[in-house]
Design goal:
By secondary structure, the protein is mostly helical. Helix content is 74%, strand content 0%. The chain has helices at residues 3-9, 17-27, 32-53, 56-63.
């Protein structure tokens, strides 16, 4: 994960999404595209980390109905 993605994903969770978006953009030097890309990279890294910790059998059982 990039340093910027780490800094953005480490921002405190806020109920006000506008304020959270402003914080991410501010950390990205004011460039919304950079903020979006860093958030996507951060999300991808978190998904990969969770995928390594969750067993495939558990996921399959959760999908059956």
């Amino acid at each position: 994960m990039s340093k910027l993605a780490e800094r953005i994903t480490d921002l405190p969770l806020k109920d006000d999404l506008d304020e959270a978006a402003d914080d991410a953009i501010r950390l990205s030097g004011g460039d919304p595209m950079v903020a979006i890309k860093a958030l996507i990279l951060g999300q991808r890294s978190l998904q990969e980390a969770f995928a390594e910790r969750i067993s495939a059998g558990y996921v399959r059982r959760g999908l059956r109905k």
